Amino acid sequence: MADSLYFKGERTVTKKTGDKVSLIRPKRGGDTHLFPQWWNLKGKVQYLKTAIFKFELSNGQAVRLVIPVEKEGVEVAIRHDGDGNFTFPSFKCIERIAVVAVDSTSLIHEYQFPSISSGRVLKRTVGSLPASTTTIGTVTVSGPNSAEVDNTLTYTAAASGDATVSYSWSIPGGGAAIQSGRSTASATIKFTAAGSCKPTCIVSSSDAGLTGESDIAADITVTVTAVESEDDDEG
User: Measuring CA to CA, how many Å separate 172 from each of 47, 125, 142, 193?
Assistant: First the structure.
């Protein structure tokens, strides 16, 4: 995933490629945002007139690119590799550009341009890019919903999310026994008594980037019938 564009003035965007970048318009109207100055801090917050772009990352997160536009004649070509790294093949009247969090003013990277770096564009790392998040998603158990006593059948659990998961099968209330696969996605279950049985799987995850629940259970209701005995015919 890669995006590029050419930005000029306070709002003009041309030569845009890719669909993971957007120019953020202020909710109050107009073309520019007031953003806290992130260098030469002297106690009192100074605000800059800026243009702000949102760039989506390949891990599903996003960052904002903050461009001061107080000087006349601002122009900059922007390229993004999809992973939070930016290059600027050409530029005018630019001293600094910031990469910040999407939901705060926390500085992640600062790019210093030759007018202050006395050479090439320098990248200064201050914070960390947002980490990817994972979910367990929806858990389902599939398999036959009817059985006879002494049947041994296979049931499979599946999670719709992208987290690394583990499995734990159980039979609440009894009426069946797990023959194999107690800690795998598929379990074989032998039904031992007539009635209603609920093979259940708890799907868990300890991924560092997990969002939502750390474990989710799903079950399936199986109706179990007794096997009718056959009487021998007497001639």
Answer: 61, 53, 17, 13
Q: Return the ∠ at Cα 35 (arms to 70 and 79), rounded to 5°.
A: 75
| Contact predicate 19/37, CB 8 Å | no
Whether residue 134 is contained in a domain is answered as no
Last residue of a domain, one of 67, 101, 125: 125
Q: What is the pTM of this model?
A: 0.65
For 220, the domain range is 139-225
Report how far residue 99's alpha carbon sits from residue 54's, in angstroms, rounded to the nearest whole number: 10
Instruction: Give the count of alpha carbons within 13 A of 38, CB side only.
Output: 24
Contact present, 212 and 134 (Cβ < 8 Å) = no
CA distances to 146, 148, 190, 201, 203 from 197, in Å: 9, 11, 11, 13, 19
pLDDT tens digits along 155-166: 999 999 989 999
